């Protein structure tokens, strides 16, 4: 092409000018072709738009991103494709473009053919004729990734567990979240670049390093250990550590999660304690049922032994030698009866007559007795609550509790020591140690003795368990205490650090309403010629009862069960004034028998014989009101007093 300086020559020669124009057109077509190829080759979305709101030209990337064809895009106003929330801001940008400004990184959303919206980032430039040249980049995926990164950053920042990122090459912490720093009493800036082992007690460093070394093979390692705060306090933690590696398997960084498990450990210890307590209670309950059953059977055997010994003593009046032999039988039987009472107390099937007892007053009255029982080598002290502590209890049984605990303390202090009886008031707002919410009197008996070995603690309330030598204890002292306390709807808790004394803490429900105290009925002379029917499946006990009543002048018949007794009555062979029946018998029990009998003889009076407690008797349907109970084992005198009392009652 000729230079511009030769313009006059071109004008002088039309042929040359024509050739020049053709050459220029060819070069322009070539340039346009190059620009078109560049336009289409751009990975971003290039376009030329007019001021009337339509595209003039689009690169093929638009079709790929939005899914529309070129013809569809050129026929639609680009404002229709823009998200409604972005149109106003886009119009402002167009106006600024037409005013001559340039825009970089302007963002809006375009609707794709499938209805979804794509985020586009724009770089635009206006031409002199108002045409806009623009390049848009689809940043939808990038924005999703940025949003995901923000979510992960927030999860890292706000996670309640401590999180830290470590450099496995240097074993240092590169970053942590606020929870991690707070766990250690520090700020996040203080944690950065600190050594990983700086936060562990020195004694666990080998263990921690061995756990971290497992990350060479494993993707994650979990372990429990201790960590240290800035102030030196150590606390238990659950560690979960993950190692992130590159494609070649080389560690890049580690992520550690730290959970403070102090509360978890406390809960686990409490759960274990409650499970142990439940197992112990179930064990004692099983032993108690066995002891109660054995004691009931022994009561049936002891009743005739005591009764016949009493008869024999009366028959041997004037023979002092033989009477002494009979009394020896009576003493042995009485000792056996006391042993049975202890078993019944442990099994909570002993019959208790309850009345109003003030705990502080009892301790004051019984104080001298307690001092004498432990001996002069033990200093006995009383710390009594200023307020009254009224109980619905059996005074004799509570005295038994005091004596047994005092003797147990004495045996733990062979060289002397201090024994303190302390009372107080406590209100439980929620269930604790098996006791419902309510008001309780607290009796604490504490000594300065040798304590109890941890391995013996689970067994101290078992009957016949003792740590004393042969002949120095029956093993029934504490089991009796346990049974009496539980039968009074209370609980006993033991705290005995080995070598640092022992404390028994008894909680008993306070009396909220006045309870009438039963008065003993004075014995009256025998009412002769009255008919008595004795019903019991135990032949030995039944025959003794019949013989004792005959000896006192009563007309007596007997039957081994309720069915046989009813047959005697229905056949008219017997019309008794009084029936003495056992409660628990094979077939028809005592209550079922008495109900049927009272339909036949409404005026007949009934006495129920039993070796069980009143709560057990109620299981057999015998109501508390109006019932007359005769507890085994009984003597002839007790039998006569009960019979005379019931017969005289209208």
Automatic annotation (TrEMBL):
Sites bearing 4-aspartylphosphate, chain numbering: 582
Enzyme Commission number, as recorded: 2.7.13.3
Family matches, as CDD domains: HisKA, PAS, REC
Residue ranges of every copy of the PAS domain listed in the record: 31-101
Domain PAC stretches: 221-273
Domain of life: Bacteria
Keyword set, alphabetical order: Kinase, Phosphoprotein, Transferase
Catalyzed chemical reaction(s): ATP + protein L-histidine = ADP + protein N-phospho-L-histidine
InterPro entries noted in UniProt: CheY-like_superfamily (IPR011006), HATPase_C_sf (IPR036890), HATPase_dom (IPR003594), His_kinase_dom (IPR005467), HisK_dim/P_dom (IPR003661), HisK_dim/P_sf (IPR036097), PAC (IPR001610), PAS (IPR000014)
One Gene Ontology MF term: phosphorelay sensor kinase activity
Domain Histidine kinase: 293-512
NCBIfam families from the UniProt entry: sensory_box
Protein name: histidine kinase
Organism the protein comes from: Pelodictyon phaeoclathratiforme (strain DSM 5477 / BU-1)
Species lineage: Bacteria, Pseudomonadati, Chlorobiota, Chlorobiia, Chlorobiales
């Amino acid at each position: 092409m000729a230079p511009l300086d030769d313009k006059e020559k071109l004008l002088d020669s039309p042929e040359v000018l024509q050739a020049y124009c053709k050459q220029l057109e060819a070069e322009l077509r070539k340039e346009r072709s190059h620009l078109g190829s560049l336009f289409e080759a751009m990975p971003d979305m290039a376009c030329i738009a007019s001021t009337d709101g339509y595209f003039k030209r689009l690169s093929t990337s638009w079709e790929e991103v939005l899914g529309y064809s070129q013809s569809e895009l050129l026929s639609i106003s680009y404002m229709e494709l823009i998200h409604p929330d972005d149109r106003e801001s886009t119009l402002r940008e167009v106006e600024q473009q037409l005013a001559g400004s340039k825009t970089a990184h302007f963002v809006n959303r375009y609707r794709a053919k499938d209805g979804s919206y794509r985020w586009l980032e724009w770089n635009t430039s206006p031409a002199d004729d108002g045409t806009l040249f623009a390049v848009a980049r689809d940043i939808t995926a990038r924005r999703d990734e940025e949003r995901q990164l923000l979510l992960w950053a927030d999860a890292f920042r706000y996670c309640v567990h401590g999180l830290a990122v470590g450099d496995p090459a240097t074993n240092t912490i590169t970053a942590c979240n606020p929870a991690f720093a707070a766990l250690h009493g520090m700020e996040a800036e203080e944690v950065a670049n600190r050594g990983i082992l700086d936060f562990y007690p020195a004694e666990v460093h080998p263990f921690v390093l061995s756990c971290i070394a497992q990350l060479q093979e494993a993707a994650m390692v979990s372990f429990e250990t201790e960590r240290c705060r800035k102030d030196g306090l150590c606390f238990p933690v659950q560690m979960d550590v993950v190692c992130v590696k590159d494609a070649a398997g080389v560690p890049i960084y580690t992520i550690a999660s730290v959970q403070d498990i102090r509360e978890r450990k406390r809960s686990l210890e409490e759960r274990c304690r409650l499970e142990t307590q439940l197992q112990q209670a179930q064990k004692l309950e099983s032993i108690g049922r066995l002891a109660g059953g054995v004691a009931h059977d022994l009561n049936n055997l002891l009743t005739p032994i005591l009764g016949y010994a009493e008869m024999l003593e009366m028959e041997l009046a004037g023979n002092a030698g033989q009477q002494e032999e009979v009394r020896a039988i009576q003493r042995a039987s009485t000792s056996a009866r006391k042993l049975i009472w202890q078993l019944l107390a442990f099994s909570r099937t002993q019959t208790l007559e309850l009345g109003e007892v003030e705990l502080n007053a009892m301790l004051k009255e019984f104080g001298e007795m307690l001092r004498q029982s432990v001996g002069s080598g033990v200093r006995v002290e009383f710390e009594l609550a200023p307020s009254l502590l009224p109980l619905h209890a059996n005074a004799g049984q509570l005295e038994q509790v005091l004596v047994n605990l005092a003797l147990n303390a004495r045996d733990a202090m062979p060289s002397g020591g201090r024994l303190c009886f302390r009372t107080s008031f406590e209100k439980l707002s929620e269930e604790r140690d098996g006791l419902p919410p309510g008001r309780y009197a607290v009796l604490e008996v504490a000594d300065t003795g040798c304590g109890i070995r941890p391995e013996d603690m689970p067994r101290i309330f078992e009957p016949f368990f003792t740590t004393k030598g042969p002949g120095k204890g029956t093993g029934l002292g504490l089991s009796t205490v346990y049974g009496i306390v539980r039968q009074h709807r209370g609980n006993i808790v033991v705290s005995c650090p080995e070598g640092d004394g022992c404390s028994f803490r008894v909680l008993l429900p306070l009396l909220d309403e006045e309870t009438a105290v039963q008065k003993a009925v004075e014995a009256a002379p025998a009412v002769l010629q009255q008919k008595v029917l004795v019903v019991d499946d135990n032949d030995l006990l039944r025959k003794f009862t019949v013989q004792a009543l005959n000896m006192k002048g009563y007309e007596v018949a007997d039957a081994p069960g309720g069915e046989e007794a009813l047959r005697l009555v229905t056949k008219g062979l017997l019309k008794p004034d009084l029936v003495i029946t056992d409660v628990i018998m094979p077939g028809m029990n005592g209550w079922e028998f008495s109900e049927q009998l009272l339909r036949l003889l409404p005026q007949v009076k009934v006495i129920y014989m039993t070796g069980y407690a009143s709560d057990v008797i109620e299981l057999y349907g015998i109501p508390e009101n109006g019932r007359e109970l005769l507890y085994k084992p009984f003597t002839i005198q007790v039998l006569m007093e009960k019979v005379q009392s019931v017969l005289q009652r209208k």
